[in-house]
Specification:
The complex is a heterodimer of chains A (646) and B (217).
Chain A (H helix, E strand, L loop, with lengths): L8 H7 L25 E6 L2 E6 H5 L15 E2 L4 E4 L3 H13 L10 H10 L9 H25 L9 H10 L5 H24 L14 H4 L1 H25 L3 H6 L1 H18 L7 H9 L13 H12 L1 H26 L10 H12 L12 H19 L1 H59 L15 H17 L2 E2 L2 H13 L7 H8 L5 H17 L10 E5 L21 H4 L11 E5 L36 H10 L1
Parallel strand pairs in A: 1-4
Antiparallel strand pairs in A: 1-2, 3-4, 6-7
Chain B lengths: L1 H17 L4 H10 L7 H7 L4 H14 L4 E3 H9 L8 H11 L6 E3 H13 L2 H12 L6 E3 H15 L3 E2 L6 H13 L6 E3 H10 L1 H7 L7
The chains are: A mainly alpha (646), B mainly alpha (217).
Membrane topology (chain A): Multi-pass membrane protein
Organism (chain A): Hippocampus comes
GO molecular function, one term (chain A): A-type (transient outward) potassium channel activity
C-alpha cells in the first residue's frame, strides 16, 4: 500500500464493521496508537528553500530518508528545521511523491543527477509513476548506451575466448569482425553475381554458325557454362554446409528463410546431375532451371535494404491484399459488362468473360496494348468508364499503402518498444502487489512473536522487540487479519498455496489423514473448535513426511502459546485458546487466535531464553523467504533473525 | 453557503436529465461538478467528529479526489489497494451503495463523513443498522439468502486464491447457511432488521467486535 491512499485507511477499517456480523471467528485486537500527539508541521530547508509539510505525510514511507529517523541527522537545533544541502528543484518532485504517492520525473532534469537525488533520499526509481516511467527508462537507456559506446571505442574488441564454431558463426553474420570474414563476404558476393550473369547470358543468342541459325550462348558453349555453373554451385554448397556447421541452433537455421533460399538455389543443379539425358523429364528439368534465379535473393544477406523491403512487404500484407481484392472485384464487374456489351458484334475478341479479364486489366492499368478493342457503341462507352475508373481504383490505394507502410514501419518499432516495456511494467505492478502481500505475511509471523513475548511479559520485560515498521502498516495488517477471521481462511503465499492444494488432494488417500480432512470440512460454528481438532491430527500427519516434502515445507496452523500454569502438551504447538472453559485457566488476553508458520520436517525444539517460562517449546523459525523488494519492508525482519539465532 | 454549492450541482444534473444520455456529456457533467462541502460548523453539528478530526478527514479525502466527489470507479480502485491478494471490486460496489445514501452515483464528503460518523462514533444500534443496510442490497428491509450470498461471495473474493485452507465453491454458501441459522428466528427465509439487531445484541463476539474500531481516528 504505497500510495496516497494511506489517508483512506481509517475509512477502510471503519468499513470492516460490515464484516463483523458474519464473522466466523472473533477478531484480533487492533494495534494501539501510542502517539496521541497532534500532527505537526515540519520545515525542510533544502539549500535555502523552505518546504513545509505535515509529519504524517512524511511518515507514509518509513523506509526512505525523510520518513525514518535518518532525517534526525540533518536536524538543525537552532533553527528547528531539517537542513539538506541538495538541489531544491529536484527536491520538489521528491516531496510531491510523499504528498501524492506518485513519483514524477521532471523532463528537464538530467537523468544521472535525478538518480543521485533519489538514491540520497532513499527512494527507488522503480516506483516512478506510469506517466513518467517510459521517459525515464528511455533517457536512462540512452545514457547507458552512450556510456557503452564510449567504452567500446576506447578498448580493443578483445572478446572472451569463443570456440571455433562460435567465431565462425560470428564471422558469417557480421563480415566486419575480421578480415577473413570480409574476404569470404566479397567472394560469395562475387560468385552470386557471376552465377546470375551466367544465367542471363546463357539465353542470349550469340553469333551464328554457318550450320544453324542463331542459338543461345548456352547451347553453343555448353561446356564452359557448365563449368561456371559447377564452380558457383560448389562455392554455394560449401558456404551452406559451413553455415550449417557453425549455426548455434541447426534446426532453427534450417528453418530460416535465407537457408531455404540457399537450398532452392543449389538444388536444381544436383537434380539436373541426377536426371541427365532422360528425355522424358528434360522438360521438367528445364523448368527447374528457372529456380536458379533465386540465387539473386542470396544478395539479401549482403544488402540491408533488401531485407527491410522484404519485411515491410510482409507487414503490409493486409493492405496489399485489400488492393488486390478491390481490383479483382472491379475487373470481374467490368469484364462481365464488356462481354455482354460486345456479345452482339461479330468477330469480337471478347469470346468469354475470362477473355475479357485481359482487356479489363490492360485498360484499368492504363496500359492499353490495343490487342482487344471494343467495337460496339455500348462497348466503347463501358470501356471508357472502365479506363476512367481504373485510374481511381489503382491510384487511390497506392498512397494509402505507402503511408500505411511508413506508419506501420514506425509503429512496429514503437510497438516493440512498448511491448518490452509493458512486461517490465506488469512485473513492477505485480512486484508492488506481492510486496504488499508479502509484507503482511511477514508481519504475521513477526506479530506473533511480539504477542508471544508480550504475553510472557512480566518475566521478559526487557526483551521487547521494537514495534513493526510503522503504525500505518500495522493497522493495514490488522485489517487484513480481520478479513481472515471473518472468512476463517488465511492468506498464504503462492508456493504454500500450491503445496497445500496438492496436499489436500493427496490427503484424501492415506487413512491417517482422513481425520484432518474431515475435521477441516465439518462446518463447526466457531473456527476455534475446528482448529483444535485439526491440531490433534496434524502432528501425526506432520511426522509422516508425506508425498511432497521437499525442502522446508511450511504449513500454517494455529500456534499454541501456553502460560506457565498449564501442563505442556506433547504436541509441538501452543495455542492461544479462547474456548470458554479454558478462559479461566489461562490468564492470557482473551479473544485472540494468532497464527504462525511452523516448519515441519525439522524437530520443533528450539530453546530461547524466554521459553523457560513456556512449557511447550515454541516452534523454530523457518528460514524466512526473502520478501520481494517491497516498498515498505518491515524493519523487523532483522529482529526476527536475531531471535531465531538464539 | 451550501445553496451556492448546490446551484452548480443541481444545474448540472438538470442539464444532464434534460439532454439525451450521451457518454461524452456524462463525462462533461462529472468533470464540471466540483463539489464543495458544507461548512465546517454544520458538519461538526451533524456528525460526531470534532473540528480537528474533520479537518484531517477532509485533507485526506481531497487529496485522493481533488474534485470533491468519489465515483464508483475511483472508490473501487482505492478500496482495492488495501487488498492486494484478492478482488475487492464487488464488495467495494456494495460499500459504495451503502455510503451513497442519496443514490446519486457519487459519494461526496458529507456522505463519507456521515457514514464514518456512524461507524466510528455511533451507538451499537446505529452500527448494526448500518451493517443491515449494507447487506440489504435492494434496500427493501429484508435480507434474503441471495443477497447474503452475494455479499458473502464478495467478501470471499477479497481473500483471493491463495488461502489456507483452500477456498472451495460451497464455502460462501455454507457460511450463509450458518448465518441464517443464527439470525433467522422465525425461519421465514428472510432476516428483518429487528431479528438482526436482536440476534447481534445477544452475540458476545459480535458485540465485542463492534467496539474494535472506535479509536481509529
Amino acid at each position: 500500500m504505497a500510495t496516497g491512499v494511506a489517508a483512506w485507511l481509517p475509512f477502510a477499517r471503519a468499513a470492516a464493521i460490515g464484516w463483523m456480523p458474519v464473522a466466523s471467528c472473533p477478531m484480533p485486537v487492533a494495534p494501539r496508537d501510542h502517539r496521541r500527539r497532534q500532527d505537526e508541521l515540519i520545515i525542510l530547508n533544502v539549500s535555502g528553500r523552505r518546504f513545509q509539510t505535515w509529519r504524517t505525510t512524511l511518515d507514509r514511507y518509513p523506509d526512505t530518508l525523510l520518513g525514518s529517523s535518518e532525517k534526525d541527522f540533518f536536524y538543525n537545533e537552532e533553527t528547528k528545521e531539517y537542513f539538506f544541502d541538495r538541489d531544491p528543484d529536484a527536491f520538489r518532485s521528491i516531496l510531491n511523491f510523499y504528498r501524492t504517492g506518485k513519483l514524477h520525473f521532471p523532463r528537464h532534469e538530467c537523468i544521472s543527477a535525478y538518480d543521485e537525488e533519489l538514491t540520497f533520499f532513499g527512494i527507488i526509481p522503480e516506483i516512478i509513476g506510469d506517466c513518467c516511467y517510459e521517459e525515464y527508462k528511455d533517457r536512462k537507456r540512452e545514457n547507458l548506451e552512450r556510456l557503452q559506446d564510449d567504452q567500446e571505442e576506447n578498448k580493443d574488441v578483445k572478446l572472451p575466448h569463443m570456440n571455433f564454431r562460435q567465431t565462425m558463426w560470428r564471422a558469417f553474420e557480421n563480415p566486419h569482425t575480421s578480415t577473413m570474414a570480409l574476404v569470404f563476404y566479397y567472394v560469395t558476393g562475387f560468385f552470386i553475381a557471376i552465377s546470375v550473369i551466367t544465367n542471363v547470358v546463357e539465353t542470349v543468342p550469340c553469333g551464328s554458325t554457318p550450320t544453324q541459325k542463331d542459338m543461345p550462348c548456352g547451347e553453343r558453349y555448353t561446356v564452359a557454362f557448365f563449368c561456371m555453373d559447377t564452380a558457383c554451385v560448389m562455392i554455394f554448397t560449401v558456404e551452406y554446409l559451413l553455415r550449417l556447421f557453425a549455426a548455434p541452433s541447426r534446426y532453427r537455421f534450417m528453418r530460416s528463410v535465407m537457408s531455404i533460399i540457399d537450398v532452392v538455389a543449389i538444388l536444381p543443379y544436383y537434380i539436373g546431375l541426377v536426371m541427365t539425358d532422360n528425355e522424358d523429364v528434360s522438360g521438367a528439368f528445364v523448368t527447374l532451371r528457372v529456380f536458379r534465379v533465386f540465387r539473386i535473393f542470396k544478395f539479401s544477406r549482403h544488402s540491408q535494404g533488401l531485407r527491410i523491403l522484404g519485411y515491410t512487404l510482409k507487414s503490409c500484407a493486409s493492405e496489399l491484399g485489400f488492393l488486390l481484392f478491390s481490383l479483382t472485384m472491379a475487373i470481374i464487374i467490368f469484364a462481365t459488362v464488356m462481354f455482354y456489351a460486345e456479345k452482339g458484334s461479330s468477330s469480337s475478341k471478347f469470346t468469354s468473360i475470362p477473355a475479357s479479364f485481359w482487356y479489363t486489366i490492360v485498360t484499368m492499368t492504363t496500359l492499353g496494348y490495343g490487342d482487344m478493342v471494343p467495337k460496339t457503341i455500348a462497348g466503347k462507352i463501358f470501356g471508357s468508364i472502365c479506363s476512367l475508373s481504373g485510374v481511381l481504383v489503382i491510384a487511390l490505394p497506392v498512397p494509402v499503402i505507402v503511408s500505411n507502410f511508413s506508419r506501420i514501419y514506425h509503429q512496429n518499432q514503437r510497438a516493440d518498444k512498448r511491448r518490452a516495456q509493458k512486461k517490465a511494467r506488469m512485473a513492477r505492478i505485480h512486484l508492488a502487489k506481492s510486496g504488499s502481500a508479502n509484507a503482511f505475511l511477514l508481519s504475521k509471523r513477526n506479530g506473533l512473536l511480539n504477542e508471544l513475548l508480550e504475553l510472557t511479559g512480566t518475566n521478559t520485560g526487557e526483551q521487547k522487540l521494537p514495534k513493526s515498521a510503522c503504525l500505518l502498516e500495522s493497522q493495514h495488517h490488522h485489517l487484513l487479519h480481520c478479513l481472515e477471521k471473518t472468512t476463517a481462511h488465511e492468506f498464504v503465499d503462492e508456493q504454500l498455496y500450491e503445496q497445500n492444494y496438492v496436499e489436500a488432494v493427496m490427503q484424501s488417500f492415506p487413512a491417517a489423514r482422513r481425520e484432518s480432512v474431515s475435521s477441516r470440512d465439518t462446518a463447526t460454528p466457531t473456527c476455534c473448535g475446528r482448529r483444535s481438532k485439526r491440531n490433534t491430527t496434524l502432528p501425526i500427519a506432520a511426522l509422516q513426511p508425506g508425498v511432497n516434502q521437499q525442502g522446508p515445507l511450511q504449513e500454517l496452523s494455529a500456534i499454541h502459546i501456553q502460560c506457565a500454569d498449564r501442563p505442556s502438551r506433547s504436541t509441538s504447538r501452543s495455542k492461544l485458546n479462547l474456548k470458554a472453559d479454558d478462559v479461566g485457566r489461562l490468564n492470557c488476553k482473551g479473544g485472540r487466535i494468532t497464527t504462525a508458520i511452523v516448519s515441519l520436517p525439522s524437530p520443533p525444539a528450539l530453546t530461547t531464553p524466554d521459553s523457560d517460562n513456556l512449557r511447550g517449546p515454541p516452534t523454530r523459525r523457518p528460514p524466512l523467504p526473502s520478501p520481494g523488494p517491497s516498498i515498505q519492508t518491515t524493519t523487523s525482519s532483522a529482529n526476527v533473525v536475531k531471535v531465531s539465532a538464539l | 453557503m451550501d445553496t451556492t454549492r448546490r446551484v452548480s450541482t443541481i444545474s448540472a444534473r438538470v442539464d444532464a436529465a434534460v439532454s439525451s444520455v450521451d457518454s461524452v456529456e456524462d463525462e462533461l457533467e462529472l468533470s464540471a461538478v466540483r463539489h464543495r462541502p458544507e461548512g465546517l460548523g454544520q458538519l461538526e453539528a451533524q456528525t460526531r467528529f470534532s473540528r480537528k478530526e474533520l479537518q484531517i478527514l477532509y485533507r485526506g479525502f481531497k487529496n485522493e479526489c481533488p474534485s470533491g466527489i468519489v465515483n464508483e470507479e475511483t472508490f473501487k480502485d482505492i478500496y482495492a489497494q488495501f487488498f492486494p491478494q484478492g478482488d475487492a471490486s464487488t464488495y467495494a460496489h456494495f460499500l459504495f451503495n451503502a455510503f451513497d445514501t442519496d443514490h446519486n452515483g457519487s459519494v461526496s464528503f458529507e456522505d463519507f463523513v456521515m457514514g464514518l460518523s456512524i461507524l466510528l462514533r455511533g451507538t451499537i444500534q446505529e452500527k448494526l443498522k448500518w451493517a443491515f443496510n449494507l447487506y440489504d442490497i435492494n434496500k427493501d428491509g429484508y435480507i434474503t439468502k441471495e443477497e447474503m450470498l452475494d455479499i458473502m461471495k464478495a467478501i470471499y473474493d477479497m481473500m483471493g486464491k491463495c488461502t489456507y485452507p483452500v477456498l472451495k465453491e460451497e464455502t460462501p454458501r455454507q457460511h450463509v447457511e450458518v448465518f441464517f441459522q443464527k439470525m433467522d428466528k422465525n425461519k421465514d427465509g428472510v432476516v428483518t432488521i429487528d431479528e438482526f439487531i436482536d440476534c447481534c445484541q445477544n452475540d458476545e463476539n459480535i458485540m465485542r467486535s463492534m467496539h474494535l474500531f472506535e479509536n481509529v481516528l
